[in-house]
Amino acid sequence: MRLLRSVLRQLHRPLNTWTSTQFLRGIPKRRSYATSISAAELEFGQPVHETHPHILKPGEITPGITAQEYADRRAKLAFSLPEGAVAVLPSAEVKYRSGAVFYPFRQESNFLYLTGFSEPQSLAVIRKTGPSLGDYTFHLFCRPKDAFAEQWSGPWSGLRAAEDVFNADSTGDIADISTLLPPLLRDASRIYADVPLHTQDASSPSSSPSTSLTSVLRSLQTRISAVPLAPQINPLRAIKSPAEIAVMRHAGRVSGRALTSAMRRAWTSEKDLDAYLSYAFTQDGLSGPAYVPVVAGGSRGRMIHYTQNTALLREGETVLVDAGGEYGWYITDITRVWPVGGKFGAAQRDLYSAVLRVQRMSVALCRASSGLSLDEIHRAAERALQEELEKLGFEFGWKTDVIGMLFPHHVGHYVGLDVHDVPGYPRSMPLRAGHCVTIEPGVYVPDDERFPKHFRGLAVRIEDSVCVNDDGPVVLTPEAVKEVEDIEALR
């Protein structure tokens, strides 16, 4: 343990030296070291360029996102806060499936967005120190290196890496947070944090950063106003940078190709198709499925979030697949429908083509110059879908909201680090360049005599991830074919 700490103290050069926080603010951070030990010989809690050059380019903290961009994000957040304000973000914690069996760790999205640090038991503090962009300090508390514990649990990054890799101005042992945090908060004009102040989650371990933060804030709240942080971060996260769009485009490209590849093959069960996609979403750097997929054959496609994926697929039916891969923690979201046997039946083709025309029209509206919001695009999609369905013999003269019955979900949502990105950010906002959304009209026909018989039980949803641009939409997932002729030509 002592030797490991000594090695960390004597790195021959800090990782990302030329993109450190101090350098970004014009004060180069240079250290002299007397050792020849390379960073590539050390172990960290997540890939870094020196250990994983096949994943990360020089200067990147996560795939496609540089240390500079993470510093810029923190600077923008600090600039948006009142003078003297402090933002505090606890990491996510490991979740347990049963007993000692845990789920793969996924960092809390706001914490990840601002730090790039993907370890549990950590806490980030961003303090505004002046009126200019870049006037802030960044403190990252985490676990110190522990050779014995890491032999059992795998490596984590440690305090030295918090400064040299993730560019914190200061760091400290997360176990000491109840002592280290109060001095950073006592003279704050306002504290921004998304943790409960009046209740404690009984399921959280008493030593978790979230619980410790709650305890500290309770002790200070008599004189300091604590307010939610998410509304401050959401406008920043909602507008994607060119680097983020490039990452999402890569995820969309690989995911789209995986779906097209799946359409080429004959499948006899939902389970086999699900398993194939799970593997295909690990190709070309993707980490795996972005969410639990929907693989729904026949009338099961009418269940919007059907995820059992255990039934057999039958000739003459269609299969609805809502799935996508993840790259660098960024999500792609795609839905496609295709005939199990390779050829659409007449009714299947007619309904599919109607939804596809509405989907293409809705995608075309995703341009900043239109000034439309997702809510307005949804209403346009409803009108267009009703017109298409009336041509197919559907009647809308009931007192019931027929279009709401056939098309019960919204036409789209924001997408990014989360499948439903930036929760709380309204869909009534006019779309701007950099907004990334899904466009997914659908029709789910109940087995009801009020609808044309040959369409009953059919389900069609067609979804792409789309980036809004000034000139027009950029579809991030075009490799997933969706034209009837293209789908049928695959087999």
UniProtKB/TrEMBL annotation:
Instruction: List, in alphabetical order, the GO biological process terms annotated in this UniProt record.
Output: proteolysis
Q: Which cofactor(s) does the record list?
A: Mn(2+)
Pfam families tied to this protein: AMP_N, Peptidase_M24
What EC number is given for this enzyme?
3.4.11.9
Ranges for domain Aminopeptidase P N-terminal: 65-202
* Entry-linked CDD domains: Prolidase (cd01087)
Q: Which UniProt keywords apply?
A: Aminopeptidase, Hydrolase, Manganese, Metal-binding, Metalloprotease, Protease
Species source reads Chaetomium strumarium
User: What is the name listed in the Swiss-Prot or TrEMBL entry for this protein?
Assistant: Xaa-Pro aminopeptidase
- Source domain of life: Eukaryota
Q: What does this protein do?
A: Catalyzes the removal of a penultimate prolyl residue from the N-termini of peptides.
Classification via PANTHER family: XAA-PRO AMINOPEPTIDASE 3
Looking up InterPro entries in the UniProt record yields: Aminopep_P_N, Creatin/AminoP/Spt16_N, Creatinase/aminopeptidase-like, Pept_M24, X-Pro_dipept-like
Family from the record: Belongs to the peptidase M24B family.
Q: What class of enzyme is it?
A: hydrolase
Q: Among the entry's GO cellular component annotations, what is one?
A: mitochondrion
One example of the protein's molecular function in GO is: metalloaminopeptidase activity
Give the reaction(s) catalysed. Release of any N-terminal amino acid, including proline, that is linked to proline, even from a dipeptide or tripeptide
